[in-house]
Design brief:
Largest sheet: 2 strands, antiparallel
Number of helices: 2
Number of strands: 2
Strand content: 15-25%
Length: 64
């Protein structure tokens, strides 16, 4: 029983760690990652008009 709880806890943490910038809070790390990915595509990460700066899905990669 104890092993099952440990495995279940590890799986839960793994699921949280893999939640990417598709949605959620726009913290420093997620904004930095999104900006790097955008720059690699030749763009600049910008907040969409009327977007919430705390929501990562309100940012877009705009071509230069």
């Amino acid at each position: 029983m104890r092993v099952a709880l440990i495995v279940l806890g590890a799986l839960a943490l793994t699921a949280c760690a893999e939640a990417g910038p598709q949605g959620g809070v726009a913290d420093y790390d997620s904004l930095r990652l999104a900006a790097k990915q955008c720059e690699a595509q030749g763009g600049t990460l910008v907040l969409q008009k009327g977007g919430d700066p705390e929501n990562i899905s309100d940012y877009a990669c705009k071509r230069k």
